[in-house]
Amino acid sequence: MQVTVLGAGSMGHGIAQVSAMAGYDVVLRDIESELVEKGLEGIRENLQGGVDRDKVTEDEMEATLGRVEGTTDLAAAVADAELVVEAVPEDMDLKQDVLSAAEAETGEETVIASNTSSLSVTEMASALDRPERVVGLHFFNPPHLMDLVEIVIAEQTDDRTEAFAVDYVREIDKEDVVVRDSAGFATSRLGLVTGLEAIRMVEEGVASPADIDEAMKLGYGYPMGPIELGDHVGLDVRLHIAEHLREELGERFKPPQALRRKVRAGNLGKKSGEGFYVWEDGERAGMSGDWGEDDA
Ligand SMILES: NC(=O)c1ccc[n+]([C@@H]2O[C@H](COP(=O)([O-])OP(=O)(O)OC[C@H]3O[C@@H](n4cnc5c(N)ncnc54)[C@H](O)[C@@H]3O)[C@@H](O)[C@H]2O)c1
């Protein structure tokens, strides 16, 4: 079976990797060849990391890389795909355009999936001729390390598509949770509640970002605190999702001013080098502002 991933960014290259590791032939498509190359390089680096930690053998690495092909040609990318997964930026118009263009080049049976973290899969599907073949496959970052895939069932998704999605997720050795299409699904909605509240607590001076994160790790068994997670995901991405959930679900998702200020200043978290923490070479190197020592 061939899986085609549209978008070779943070999520797309990881989705391509886990699909290829499960034995699928994979085509990774982006709009420019440098972006395709960057995605392929990301897969190579992840696999090399796995080899270095004895999680992946050299042979598995080579076999996986041999199953992934990169391209900028949409028609060629999707022509033989049984599953197309889009991982382009979180914008409804863009996603509808990308999925419609892909659908026009695929066979009738091809399942078309979106990796959206919060947008309505039902609305996305409504732009397509075969909306019953559309489903949400919400991977987590980074896909090669995170076990969960939320399967999002749109109003139009038929039983065959749902069963196909469940099979695929199990085939790539991930855990599935099936949710009905609703704003923020199960994970983004709850994750955001703690993320926004933690920022409000920083604003109120309850505790430093590092202490709030440490408290949730030690007290509640979180693998990563809610504020650090925001820096990982990207504060611009968090703000965007908060605004969307506020529109759909109400004022409890109103983004805190501190989050808006960070985004306006271009302090987007790990990817820009500073968010609520300072980041050096991808590692946490202190807190932003005068909160004192980051002794985590
Ligand atoms: N980053 C996360 O932690 C995370 C987690 C879960 C889900 N998501 C969702 O995954 C999706 C992608 O997010 P990301 O963080 O990987 O974004 P990203 O910006 O890292 O990557 C998006 C890629 O899509 C490419 N692209 C744009 N238009 C395209 C087109 N027409 N065809 C093919 N490629 C195109 C861009 O060039 C870019 O390389 C979003 O919907 C996001 O909400 C993100």
Short description:
The protein is α/β, with parallel strands linked by helices.
Descriptive account of the structure:
This is 3-hydroxybutyryl-CoA dehydrogenase. Residues 2-181 form the 3-hydroxyacyl-CoA dehydrogenase NAD binding domain. This protein has 296 residues and is of the alpha/beta class. It has 2 domains: 2-180, 3-Layer(aba) Sandwich (Rossmann fold), CATH 3.40.50.720; 187-285, N-(1-d-carboxylethyl)-l-norvaline Dehydrogenase, domain 2 (Orthogonal Bundle), CATH 1.10.1040.10. The chain is built from 12 helices and 10 strands. It has helices spanning 10-21, 33-52, 58-66, 74-78, 92-104, 121-125, 159-171, 187-203, 209-220, 226-233, 235-249, 257-264, and strands at 2-6, 25-29, 68-71, 83-86, 111-114, 134-139, 148-153, 175-180, 277-280, 283-287. The strands form 2 sheets. Strands 3-2-1-4-5-6-7-8 form an 8-stranded mixed beta sheet, with helices on both faces. The protein has a two-stranded antiparallel sheet with strand order 9-10. Helix 1 (10-21) links the parallel strand 1 and strand 2 (25-29). The longest helix has 20 residues, at 33-52. The protein is globular and about 55 Å long. The model has no long low-confidence stretch (mean pLDDT 95). Nicotinamide-adenine-dinucleotide (NAD) is lined by residues 6-12, 29-31, 35, 87-90, 98, 115-117, 139-141, 233, 237.
